[in-house]
Structures are given as structure tokens and as C-alpha cells.
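Quick one: C-alpha cells for this chain, please?
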Amino acid sequence: MRTREIPTVSLKLKPHETKFPYVRSVMDGEIEGAYIEHVTIDNNGIADLQSEDCKTIYLFFRGQGTIVANNLDYEIVPETIFLPNEIKSIKIEAEGESKLHYLKISSKLTDQDKMELEKFPSENTQSVYYAKFSDCQSYVEPIKSPNTVSRTILPNKIIPRVAMGTVQTKGPDEVGAHQHPMLEQLFLGLSKNSCVVYADNAKVNFPEHALLHIPLGSRHSVSVNEGENLHYVWMDFFLDSKGEEWLKTHIVEDKDTNHGIL
């Protein structure tokens, strides 16, 4: 078993990174077809146009603000997800003197994706998708302890080959070792996250407000020590739609929970 680097990027601003809006690309070239930006804005806000060839996901992880889309206001708090879907232009503003931090993830659509997108339920693709993580549907999984709270924050069949969720527990605990060669995966450390990620023979400390890439096909796990918190977003980018069968390992606890479609 070989040792491979676990790429990790801090999303905390350095003193010289104080001009807003602040935008930088992260994880360049790590995942084919996924372009990721760390964006920080102040109350002057930022206008954002959507590309015809991509579907865009906004993950807000620090600060408060508002999104204006089609003359409707959406409240943004830490740990909120937003997809414009068919809306081509939005405005994002931070609240008051605070700074708003988020990831903008653009998933490039292949020709096959575009064909599959036409088969998705119209309510999944036409309407804004907006949810606070804590309101999303929970699930259980064999590799996690009964103390773990897992939620699906972006179900599949909204964007082709993409799904996202959260994992939260207190130490001592772990996410058991597993591998999934059918998908690329990123982790986003949320507030107070402090754990260790292992992939094959490599390991790395994983703090809050960091982005991490699990090496494709690696056998990986996560551990958290006593008194520490494990709290992160997983982002799955499937190599093809058949790989989404992996999500059947997520056993839904409450099918009536709102998924966030508006």
C-alpha cells in the first residue's frame, strides 16, 4: 500500500488578504470538471452570473448575509447551501460589518450530464435549492457509530453525479475505514472541527475551515479524540451516474424531512 499525499487547504484569511470581495481558486486540477473558489465578501456584496455549461453550488460556512435571487431574499447563516438552478444572476451580501465566507463550486456538465439532467424531476432543476444544514434529512451508515449525526444536504438527481452531506460527532469516535473508487471526494471542515483523516498510509490533521481531498480509490477513515469535535461536509463527485449506487449505503431515518427544494 503506497503513501499518497492528502491535499489540504486552509480557508482562513491571512493579514494581506483583506481586499473584498476576495476570491481565490482552490484545489485546482484535483477533481476533473469541478472548479472551486473560496470567496469572502463584505456588505458591499458581489453579483454572480451563472455559466450555461456548469451547475453552481454555494456552501456558506462562516458569517451571515443575504442572497437576492429573482427579487426574493434568502437568509444566509453559517452552514447553509444554495443552488440557483435556472436563475442566471444573483446578488450576495454580508450582513453589517461581518464578513461572509463561502465556497463556490462549479460542476461542468458533460454531454451525458445534460441528457440526464432533462430526465430529472423538474422541481429539482427549475426551482432554487436552499437549506440550512441542520434542517436537512438525516441518515445512518454502517461505518459510523450510533453517536454520529449524518445529514444529506444535497441529494443526488439535482446536479448530475454530485451529492453532499455532513457528518458530526464528538470524540472519542471514528468514521470506519472504507473506499469508493467510483467517486472523488472533498471534505470541508466546519466550525470547531478537529480530527485526523487517514488515507492508505498517509494521515493529516483536519481543522475547522479547511478543504481536503481524499485520494481517489484510497482506503480512508477519520478519527476524533476525546473532547474534540468531528464536523465536516463531504462532497461526492461521481465518475459516472452508475457510481451513485454507493449512496444506497446511506439509510434514511425520516423520509418526510424537508430536502430544501423551494
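Confidence is low (pLDDT under 50) at residues 255-262.
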